[in-house]
Amino acid sequence: MKQWMMLGMAAMMAMPAMAQVKKKPMKFADNNVVAHRGAFKANGFPENSIASLQEAIRLGCTGSEFDVRMTADDSLIINHDEHYNKLLIEETTFAALQQFPLSNGEKLPTLREYLLGRHEGQ
Question: With contact defined as beta carbons under 8 Å apart, do 70 and 78 qualify?
Fold first, then answer.
């Protein structure tokens, strides 16, 4: 019987705290949304592009998940798959990969560019 009374008292004490939480308006960033390969879907940006990263920042995402690959000449680039334009990234030089822009015209971003949120020279 004591256990039920204690449980009931604990529930009653928690109810005011739960009511306060419900009253607080929730903001997008309160939900801790982490963009997956940037925020690319809504606006048709390429995955892992600087544009998709900037969109995730604009939306207020807590972070953005991304994949880092190393090229044959030791450049670190951002790309989800091990292939880019049917080329195996680890066996292809960075210069060769740069011959193929992303669908929005951007070049394949390096890790440095992605962390800075912009392409070199911008």
Answer: no
Three-state DSSP at 67 gives coil
Pairing, β 83-84 against β 76-78: unpaired
72 burial class (0-12, 13-18, 19+ CB within 10 angstroms)?
Answer: middle
pLDDT at 12: 53
Q: Exposure string (b/e) for 76-104, b if CB count within 10 Å is 16 or more?
A: ebbbeeeebeebebeebebebbeeeebee
- Beta carbons of 51 and 106 less than 8 angstroms apart: yes
Q: How far is CA 27 from the centre of its chain?
A: 18
The rounded distance, in Å, linking the Cα atoms of 47 and 66 is 9
For residues 28-41, give the mean pLDDT: 72
Residues forming beta bridges with residue 95, ordered by sequence position: none
- 93 Cβ neighbours under 8 A, 6+ residues apart: 71, 72, 73, 75
Q: How confident is the model at residue 23 (pLDDT cuts 50, 70, 90)?
A: low
